Task: inverse folding
């Protein structure tokens, strides 16, 4: 989605995307033409703002102070991991349908993802070869064949089952736990 792509590109160009998130964006830049274009646009816009401003040296340590303020309140609890809303990379899985990985468990071979689908978008039928797929509708509607799911509805597809094509009328946000 362009809004997410804009946020990702702007955060990268400004230098506020840090750590693993910055590394992931950097890796994606080498192969994602749309992200390259957005990053170049943001870079050009920031250069124009910089050139329009009068020259003045910022106080020493200002950038670190800003980064510390951005990170304030983002303390991790020992043995936990937090993913803040609005962070992460969204990848297209089909036209109008994107996903972001929240967590990947290499031992259980499961992945937790958020899926966002625009109104009227579709996702192809698919076979559950590697294991069961769990789905919780957080927002909107999801129609899988003749089954309509609404916010709060939970759906599980067992290993060996096949989903018919899915669509959404109003758009949706889903939490899924899937095998890989």
Result:
């Amino acid at each position: 989605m362009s809004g997410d792509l804009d946020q990702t590109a702007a955060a990268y160009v400004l230098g506020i995307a840090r750590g693993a998130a910055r590394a992931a964006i950097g890796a994606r830049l080498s192969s994602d033409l749309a992200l390259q274009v957005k990053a170049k646009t943001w870079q050009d816009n920031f250069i124009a703002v910089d050139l329009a401003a009068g020259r003045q040296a910022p106080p020493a340590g200002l950038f670190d102070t800003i980064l510390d303020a951005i990170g304030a309140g983002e303390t991790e609890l020992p043995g936990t991991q937090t993913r803040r809303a609005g962070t992460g990379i969204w990848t297209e899985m089909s036209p109008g349908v994107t996903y972001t990985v929240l967590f990947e468990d290499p031992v259980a071979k499961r992945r937790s993802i958020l899926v966002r689908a625009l109104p009227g978008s579709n996702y192809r039928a698919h076979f559950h070869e590697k294991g069961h797929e769990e789905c919780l509708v957080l927002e909107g509607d999801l129609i899988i064949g003749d089954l309509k799911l609404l916010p709060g509805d939970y759906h599980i597809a067992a290993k060996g089952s096949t989903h018919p094509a899915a669509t959404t009328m109003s758009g949706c946000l889903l939490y899924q736990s899937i095998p890989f």
